[in-house]
Amino acid sequence: MANVQLSELEEYLQQLDGFDEPKVLLEQYSTSAHIASHMLYCAQIQFADIEGRTVADLGCGCGILSLGAQMLGSSHVIGFEIDADALKIQYKNCSEIELFVEAVQCDILRYLPGRFEKYFDTVIMNPPFGTKRNAGTDMKFLKIATKLASNVVYSLHKRSTRNYVLQKAAQYGAKGKVIAELKYDLPKAYKFHKKASVDVQVDFIRFELLNH
């Protein structure tokens, strides 16, 4: 399915199920089909970083980025996710659209990179933004991503943290460039949310590994 148009990709991804009962401590929010398709399509069309490449999806959740990368012709996709319930939904999504990607249940922050060091051409992720009790989680994800990737990492980060993110990436041996500014619509998923949805200003950043 490598010759997929953006509209087709988004349509496919819209069929996928998200979290049934998102877990606040894991900051679980489903990446929308709109954002996921644009992230992946940009990575492929502008930079040729998906088709024929080995791809990791960190914190893959229900598998929207993993399955999207597979649709665009990745040679091998592995999603890494700590939550067994999310992986059950991912497996269901795979079955429903008859497209299968490998998934590994593990605590990314404890067990990676391990044997996967520099194993992947490309890492894609929508990490926890580090709110609530998870301060700094996005940077921990980014550090691990730079160890897994031999070429490039694509990630979403809150725009308010842009300078900090780019500085930390440089310390990790990666040159970051903001390639899109997005509004991430966070639907009301948890009881403490007061509003039906909130728009979060987000950067879509491409980090090129300087040692590849």
UniProtKB/TrEMBL annotation:
Entry-linked CDD domains: AdoMet_MTases
Species: Eufriesea mexicana
Keywords, ordered alphabetically: Methyltransferase, Transferase
Source organism phylogeny: Eukaryota, Metazoa, Ecdysozoa, Arthropoda, Hexapoda
GO molecular function per UniProt: nucleic acid binding; rRNA (adenine-N6-)-methyltransferase activity
Protein name from the UniProt record: Methyltransferase-like protein 5
Keyword Zinc attached: no
Family: Belongs to the methyltransferase superfamily. PrmA family.
Segments forming domain Methyltransferase small: 50-138
Pfam families given in the database record: MTS
Domain of life: Eukaryota
